[in-house]
Write a sequence for this structure.
């Protein structure tokens, strides 16, 4: 399989699918009331965009339903930044993914529903035997739903390919979500299904070119 760039999903692909829902979401939810009473201008500007009376309740509802809301994603990035910086959060990136990102012969890009800010934090504070590891120097660029669109729409992948200056058929996209892979494939991208512990079982997984370890790439 020849490709000129790799586009990676995060949750369920380079780190356990449980990390977001069992670590990041609970950390954020504990800060919702404090967030809503914050006098920070950036936070207030984001909160007013919800245009609802019960902002805290609305935020909790979005998180509970795992809604990919762009305003919510930006707020989460701001809250998680504090958690990463004070050592309360470390990202459990798979060892084989770390090795692949560090040693890839082609540019590595990230595409996640989480904000670009949250993505950079995750890769800046990767859990390792020596405290934390910063993978940002090895990652060429980041894309999210604000910059590129929803991950289940083919137009999003066309935008990314155009942005990186590589034809879609020269990009390999790896994700645990078959709907995302279907969307990417429409543009001509090469695709692989990430099969990791805890991921949902995918019907007809073989047709999605499954990979269980990035050492096999």
């Amino acid at each position: 399989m020849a490709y000129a760039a790799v586009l990676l999903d995060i949750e369920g692909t380079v780190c356990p699918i449980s990390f977001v829902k069992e670590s990041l979401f609970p950390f954020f939810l504990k800060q919702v009331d404090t967030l809503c009473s914050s006098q920070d201008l950036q936070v207030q500007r984001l909160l007013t965009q919800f245009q609802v009376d019960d902002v805290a309740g609305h935020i909790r509802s979005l998180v509970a339903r795992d809604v990919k809301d762009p305003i919510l994603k930006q707020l989460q990035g701001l809250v998680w930044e504090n958690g990463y910086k004070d050592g309360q959060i470390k990202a459990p990136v798979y060892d084989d993914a770390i090795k692949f990102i560090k040693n890839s012969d082609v540019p590595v890009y990230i595409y996640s529903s989480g904000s670009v800010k949250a993505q950079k934090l995750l890769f800046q504070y990767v859990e390792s035997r020596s405290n934390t590891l910063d993978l940002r120097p090895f990652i060429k660029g980041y894309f999210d739903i604000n910059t590129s669109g929803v991950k289940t729409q083919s137009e999003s992948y066309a935008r990314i390919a155009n942005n990186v200056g590589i034809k879609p058929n020269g990009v390999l996209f790896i994700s645990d979500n078959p709907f995302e892979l279907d969307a990417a494939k429409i543009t001509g991208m090469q695709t692989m299904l990430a099969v990791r512990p805890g991921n949902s079982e995918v019907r007809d997984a073989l047709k999605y070119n499954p990979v269980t370890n990035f050492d096999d790439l």
